[in-house]
Amino acid sequence: MNNIFNVGLLLSAMRLATPLLLAALGGLFSERSGVINIALEGLMLAGAFTAAAVTWYAGSPWVGLASAVLAGAAIAGIHALACIRYRADQVVSGTAINILLTGVPALLSGAFFLSTGSTPQVPKEQLMPYTPIVIAAVLVPLTYYVLYYTPFGLRLRAVGENPEAADAAGVSVNGMRYAAVLISGALAGIGGAYLSIGQSSLFTRNMSAGRGFIALAALIFGKWRPVQTMLACLLFGFTEAVAIQLQGVHLFGGEEIPTQFVQIIPYVLTIVVLAGFIGTSRAPRALGIAYQKEK
User: Fold this and answer.
1) Torsion of CA 278, 284, 288, 291, to 10 degrees
2) Radius of gyration, CA atoms only, the chain
């Protein structure tokens, strides 16, 4: 047990937190604008499949990464159109996208690779280095700066708090929301790409394994703020790293810790966080409320 907590564990926690942070920062942009983005799970799956498939065909992880960004933004665009243009229920729209993306990648994988379970394995030399970790580390201060020190950030926060006042000041509420949701899709797509061509070397069905929901929990835990959200993602990443380290570890009585118990640790933490903090975190005032410009 004493060998569990070491430098390797911390590095593993950073790697595991990276896709969570990318998706959570994407969700931050969307939800600060007033659009609930429960579709982060589906957006990550879209990015993961696209990155693996395009990298295998193109032979370049950078082409795969760019394709994942486009795929995430495209799916997010559907969510934005449904919620902003047609004022659909944002939770229902996000849930529909999550359900859709649990099946579409498998269908496309079967069509392109004759296997619905996974894509072909990408050669080691075509995998991404630790670039997404660097991207995630840079994005936190960048997001903070954009959110609090630029006109775009001021307008973004304004449309999420009081869209009527922002509209009266000449800000395009729907335009800002479209931009924010597309950014969220692009960042979640990068997070998904890291799963398939960074941490792994192929796409497997449902490989995000609830990380989109964990990212959403980290966003709530972090009170929709960049630095706090990063710390929450690191906490979840650390928990997942500990869960991996505990596999095969024996208790003092000599019995091995049950695998099922180990695997549920990150998800139990997610439930605890949501149960304990969702009432104390103040969401943007206009979150989930569709805006219609008065004529």
Assistant:
1) 170
2) 19
Q: Looking at residue 24, what is its pLDDT?
A: 97
Give 233-275 as a 3 state SS string.
HHHHHHHHHHHHHHCCCECCCCCECCHHHHHCHHHHHHHHHHH
The model's pTM: 0.92
3-class DSSP string for 3-46: CCCCHHHHHHHHHHHHHHHHHHHHHHHHHHCCCCCCCHHHHHHH
Q: What is the DSSP-derived secondary structure letter of residue 172?
A: -
Which range has the worst mean pLDDT, 23-32, 84-93, 169-178, 276-285?
Answer: 276-285
Q: Which residues contact 191 (CB under 8 A, 6 or more apart)?
A: 18, 19, 20, 21, 22, 23, 26, 44, 47, 132, 211, 215
Go through the domains of the chain in sequence order and give each one's CATH number: 7-277 (1.10.3470)
Instruction: Indicate the range of 36-45, 147-156, 213-222 predicted with least confidence.
Output: 213-222
Mean pLDDT computed over 113-118:
91
Is pLDDT above 80 for 250? no
Helices in 114-209 by DSSP H: which ranges?
Answer: 131-149, 151-161, 163-168, 173-194
